[in-house]
Amino acid sequence: MGRLRRLVESVVSIGIGNVVAVLRYTRERKRLERRYPPPTPFPWLWPRPEVGATVVGAADGATAIARATGASGGVAAGPGGFRFAETWADPGQVAEVVATPRGARVRFAVAEADAGQPGADADEPGAETGEPAAGATRDCGPATLDLSFLAPDLIEVTWRAPLAGLPLPERDWPEVDVEFIPAPPGEGWILRTAALEVHLAPDARLSFFEPGGRLLREEWPPLFAGENVCHRVRLAGCERFHGLGERASPVDLRGGTYRMWNRDPGGAYGPGADPVYLSIPIYLSRTMAEAGHEGSKASEAGQRGVDAAGESRNPSPGYLVFYANSHPASFDLGKADPSVAEHRFAGGGLRYYFIPGPAAQVLERYADLTGKPPLPPLWAFGYHQCRWSYYPEARVRKLAADFAHHDIPVDAIHLDIHYMDGYRVFTVDKTRFPDLAGLAKDLAAQGIRLVTICDPGVKRDPGYFLYREGLEEEAFCTLPDGEVVIAPVWPGPCAFPDFSHPAVREWWGGQYGRLLGAGVAGFWQDMNEPATFVAAGEPTLPLAARHALGDHRAVHNLYGLFMNQAAYEGLRRLDPERRPFIVSRSGWAGLQRYAWTWTADVRSDWACLRQTIATIIGLGLSGIPFSGSDVGGFNGEATPELYIRWLQASAFMPFFRSHTMIGTPDQAPWSYGEPYTTIARDFIRLRYSLLPYIYTLAWEAAEKGWPMVRPLFWSEADAPTRESPDDDTFLLGDSLLVAPVTEEGATSREVPVPAGLWYDFWTDRPLRGPARVRLDAPLGRIPVLVRAGAVLPREEPASSTGARGTERLSLHLYPPEVGASGAGHLYTDRGDGYGPCRLDRFVVTRRQGEVELRWVESERGFPWPYRRTEVTLHGVRDARGSRAVEPSSVWVGAVEDL
Ligand code: GLC
Asked: Are 124 and 84 in contact (CB under 8 A)?
């Protein structure tokens, strides 16, 4: 029944007319796969014959087992029936290590006779079952290793050159002081900077240490088979992993296998779906402190922090690793073998970056490497309303009027695919929207921006200017025989721009002018995995598709990123005075330079509400600070309660938008009547009142690459204690802890209170952590805590960010413990454009009987935007309440201690 319903749903959503195109494409794809077989199958199809055995290959029937595999031989047939006819080999023994200005270059002695011998190291994965194999040959390509420090805490490790032209920003890294220490013969080599020590063993194992201290990571030499790469890392028992882009998984990824292949899950997904739209080969590792261990005590140089059982004796502050590889890959983080992480790439070389340190520090460095997110316009942090699709124009006008009628703030209305003429990108359906510019103008007068969806597929229609231009410009992806690749999406058969070509990006970027000119303020880039409709197999272009940068295997995961680059750069050229707002479904490392993202087509159910919180935390830990989910969920009908709970959680997320699928009832703040409308209004107003804080966090993200939504362990960097992160609780910046309700019917929930003093946002009740407390959560409220020492700037909510009052700013003081101090800052500017800005810093100190707030400094040229500044003191008895103050120092005296 469920399957039938899903079938009907997907037929309806892709359009009945498209069914034939889909069947044709499915058949055509099969033909293409036979004609142009991929050089290697996808890594998640590679055989994994036995637990503990890592890799196996077989060449033409002659079995060959690479060193350290331990698997029995034989030609391995994967689930697709393909034969994996390659032999894995490691680089061999180190022959020569030469110091270079930033590190070292290593050459290997490739001894054919060694190949296939079981590892000398009994602790290599699978070595216990290893058998020597005859006839193996090494195929490691140029067996060199380059270790190059870009900064004292950032090393680039290259075993095999990555894809040329991988889109990472160019940057001149300052010189780094690197000490090169050849160890006694047979013991390896050490490279040391002020922040990191890298040990190279004679058998090419690499280990990463804090200088003279704790072990951070230990790697086996990679294995190569043709262009495939397998890289393995030894795991500590109490190590946790986070990141990998967008994952429908818990925040802690340990114990799972995750695929790198941006994929449309087909209109609906939920927890456990993998992969989804946005993969990023980056993760953070944290090693948990164990009871009885002194986490911060450095061990002797060279001493391992991992004992024989794989348990950490000296928990490390963690690290980040980023694999500069866009090819299909799978990351097994201790699933097949709990003590091994195994990364397999179907091509793309092996270059990765290693950064030691806790989350805040490594993400800042990672942003140096892949780019910082530009500051978005303020309006982007307002409330957005969407559905598939609002049309015609009258309905959109009515929607805007409904917001005014219900007195609910709103900043943007999104137009889904029906605003286009037959789903032709960059066109407007003149029947539904005869005067888009007039509509945009009228909405703008009400403080509402229009955002339009843009899909990459260009309808194959000789009468359509964009298709014709694309053909003339040779802008589309082709097959090896030069034919333009055609695959169905909303408009039926489409051609796909090759965004990896700079000239195509420029051409495409210019097209946004058509909509900008009509007053459209932002762009929602969808289906850019790229997604296509198929009846079976991968819902994307054929693997044989060609891009300027390489074949589809190489470029698939970069497609969305390049499309966003085209849009961002186009918008900067077309409208240099305004900051682009782009929200994209797909992307790769560095997406933050151009666009936001959202979790897209999740089901409207409680499990998905809960899941999206973990997904958004994970995105933040992958360098994407601006994201959110469809309020109410996308696929299905949200109950009023689910909608409200989703909205409450999303009010504290960067992207705050209601959206729902075609054919479902509206999901707008008033759709469910009372008491839901009032609750929705209250939370949207609360969001608007917090905009000074939220915008300051956005500025912080732009400066440091930090996520706005953070896991609770963010602030426990020095003494991590959380075994597994709380997947349904998050920090918004440093000051707020948000505990959404994700259980149907719940009227209270248990809240993890991190170490220190916190205040209940609603009652000012002080709470001390570490603790777990049950707090009231009636339908109209979710638990929110404020960290002691916070200075939370709030303003009067307005009907939109454009109408925000500059009458009054309230600085909400949450006093720290006696003798302690806290700090806060406030970033202000015009809210858009590139004009002057201002940063104010506050310090709040508590002494016996008094709380002092100091307005420490103001930098930069923007004038203080508020007429009045008010201080509200929370959480202390006998506080005098609010006081109007000038923007200078103020004393609130004579308060009693708690
Ligand atoms: C995709 C998007 C969804 C959108 C729909 C129609 O499924 O993820 O948000 O509404 O396409 O454009």
From this structure: no
Question: Which H/E stretch holds residue 287?
Answer: strand 279-287
CA distance 733 to 620: 12
Residue 537: the pLDDT is: 87
Which residue type is seen at 892?
V
| CA 89/CA 837 separation, integer angstroms | 56
Which positions are catalytic? 526, 529, 601
Instruction: DSSP letter for 476, please.
Output: B
Q: pLDDT averaged over the chain? A: 87
- Beta strand 520-525 with 582-584 is parallel
Q: Provide the 8-state DSSP code for 127.
A: G
CA pair distance 881, 317, nearest whole angstrom? 42
Report the separation in Å between the CA atom of 660 and the middle of ligand 1, taken as the mean of its atom positions: 9
CA of 423 to the centre of ligand 1 (A): 12
Distance 526 CA to ligand 1 centre (A): 7
Which helix (H) or strand (E) covers residue 508, if one does? Answer: helix 502-516
Q: Which of 390, 419, 601, 604 to mutate to test the pocket of ligand 1 (most atoms within 8 A of CB)?
A: 601
Give the mean model confidence (pLDDT) for residues 468-484. 97
Q: Token pair of 412, please?
A: 């943007």
- Quote the Cα angle for 778-780-783, to 5°: 65
Contact call for residues 406 and 684 (beta carbons, < 8 A):
no
Which is higher by pLDDT, 611 or 3?
A: 611
Q: Which pLDDT band holds residue 857 (cuts at 50, 70, 90)? A: confident
Q: Is the CB of 455 inside a 6 Å radius of any atom of ligand 1?
A: no
Dihedral, CA of residue 632, residue 638, residue 642 and residue 643, to nearest 10: 40
Question: pLDDT tens digits for 647-688?
Answer: 999 999 999 999 999 999 999 999 999 999 999 999 999 999
pLDDT band for position 187 (cuts 50, 70, 90): confident
Helix (H) or strand (E) holding 330: strand 329-333
From ligand 1's centre to the CA of 466, what distance in Å? 22
Q: Is the CB of 600 within 6 Å of ligand 1?
A: yes
- Kindly calculate the radius of gyration of the chain based on its CA atoms and give it in whole angstroms: 28
Size of the chain in residues: 898
The confidence band for 544, taking pLDDT boundaries of 50, 70 and 90, is very high
Amino acid at 398: K
Ligand 1, atom nearest to 388 Cα: 10
Write the CA distances from 441 to 481, 799, 801, integer angstroms.
48, 17, 16
> What pLDDT does residue 140 have?
53
Strand, coil or helix: 355: strand
- For the CA of 416, the closest atom of ligand 1 is 12
Strand partners, 752: 772
Q: What is the mean pLDDT of residues 591-605?
A: 98
Residue 875 CA to ligand 1 center (angstroms) comes to 45
Q: Where are the beta strands (DSSP E) in 644-790?
A: 655-658, 709-710, 730-732, 736-738, 748-760, 766-776, 784-787
CA angle 50/326/374 to nearest 5° reads: 135
**373 pLDDT tier (thresholds 50, 70, 90):** very high
Q: Helix, strand or coil for residue 35?
A: helix
- Per the listing, tokens 């990896």 go with 500
DSSP state for residue 206 in the 8-state scheme: E
Testing ligand 1's pocket by substitution, the residue of 414, 416, 425, 525 carrying the most ligand atoms inside 8 A of its CB is: 416
Find out whether the beta carbon of 219 lies less than 6 Å from any atom of ligand 1.
Answer: no
Ligand 1 pocket test: pick from 608, 629, 634 the residue with the most ligand atoms within 8 Å of its Cβ: 634
Measuring from atom 5 of ligand 1, which residue has the nearest CA? 388
Cα 514–525–727 angle (5° rounding)?
155
Q: Is residue 447 within 8 Å of 799, Cβ to Cβ?
A: yes
The answer to whether the beta carbons of residues 71 and 56 sit under 8 Å apart is yes
User: Using a 6 Å cutoff on CB, does residue 9 contact ligand 1?
Assistant: no
